[in-house]
TrEMBL record:
Zn(2+) binds at H194, H196, E201, H243. One of its GO terms (molecular function) is zinc ion binding. HAMAP family: KduI. Keywords: Isomerase, Metal-binding, Zinc. Binds 1 zinc ion per subunit. Pathway: Glycan metabolism; pectin degradation; 2-dehydro-3-deoxy-D-gluconate from pectin: step 4/5. Catalyzes the isomerization of 5-dehydro-4-deoxy-D-glucuronate to 3-deoxy-D-glycero-2,5-hexodiulosonate. InterPro entries: KduI, KduI/IolB_isomerase, KduI_N, RmlC-like_jellyroll, RmlC_Cupin_sf. Its EC number is 5.3.1.17. This is 4-deoxy-L-threo-5-hexosulose-uronate ketol-isomerase. SUPFAM superfamilies: RmlC-like cupins. It comes from the Bacteria.
Length: 276
């Protein structure tokens, strides 16, 4: 399992391009038949990607988490960004169309991910955080996720934020998860930027053309750095970091958070004048 240690902001400011990518970028999520799982010590979040040609069981190295199975003391959020498929949770089949989400509660032992058609495979993006309470396993469709419109055309950041797993919707212990879709011609997300000391965040960028990429901006507000992020790659955003992006073309992203609280509006807004 790919383990990512937590990096101090003063250390992060010294890293070169390769080192920044090694610590904060996840390049391979939807490759091969086995699940790609990455364990970060930022709030002990597990980030994963599965692109199944046949049915794939999502198991974890028990030595890493010190439990017999992945969700023994954890919960999981999943969103499909590929072709139609299904997830078997303890043998119960849940159909997963493109953009469908699923919350899987603590205590579920077996999860099998499948595609309806191997030629048009599903791509399951998953986040798992430690959990101490059982909340019901529940599906969230794209239409279920309440849309909030943000930004403006003049700022090239008109976008719709959809919350999938959050305190006013499908409940969880820690995880908050949703999707932000940019309007054609809008390329900026989350500018003006924010950080949130109370939570870490992970971003998955997708729905972009092969030649396009997103400059993802990170770092403390007065020490910004960037990562070049391509289709189906994810970024770890520590609590001390801004997280914003500008694409060379259109894109969509899934954001997810874990930490002290689940209040979406609990952000430390950073004045534009303080960005360096
Ligand atoms: O803390 C919240 C997250 O950064 C995202 O919700 C931001 C986002 O989707 C956006 O502004 O487009
Ligand atoms: Zn944020």
């Amino acid at each position: 399992m790919d383990i990512r240690h937590a990096i101090h902001p003063e250390h992060a400011a010294l890293l070169d391009t390769d080192e920044l990518r090694e610590h904060f970028l996840i390049e391979q999520l939807f490759s091969g038949d086995a699940p790609n799982l990455i364990y970060t010590f930022y709030d002990r979040l597990i980030i994963g990607g599965i692109k199944p040609s046949g049915p794939v069981e999502c198991a974890v190295d028990s030595a890493v988490i010190g439990a017999d199975y992945l969700l023994e003391r954890r919960e999981m959020g999943v969103i499909n960004i590929g072709g139609p498929g299904s997830i078997l949770v303890e043998g119960k089949k849940i159909a997963m169309a493109d953009r469908d989400g699923l919350y899987i509660g603590k205590g579920n032992r077996t999860m099998v991910f499948a595609s309806d058609d191997a030629a048009n495979p599903a791509r399951y993006y998953l986040l798992s955080a430690p959990a101490h309470n059982v909340y019901p396993t529940e599906k969230i469709t794209f239409a279920d996720a309440a849309p909030v419109e943000m930004g403006e055309m003049e700022k090239s950041n008109k976008r719709t934020i959809r919350k999938y797993i959050h305190p006013d919707g499908v409940k969880s212990c820690q995880l908050v998860m949703g999707m932000t879709t940019l309007e054609p011609g809008s390329v900026w997300n989350t500018m003006p930027p924010h950080s949130h000391q109370r939570r870490m965040e992970a971003y998955l960028y997708f729905n972009m053309k092969e030649e396009d990429f997103v400059f993802h901006f990170m770092g403390e507000a007065d020490q910004t750095r960037h990562l070049v992020v391509r289709e189906g790659q994810a970024v770890l955003s520590p609590s001390w970091s801004i997280h914003a992006g500008a694409g060379t073309g259109s894109y969509t992203f899934i954001w997810g958070m874990a930490g002290e609280n689940q209040a979406f509006t609990d952000m430390d807004h950073i004045p534009m004048s303080e960005i360096r």
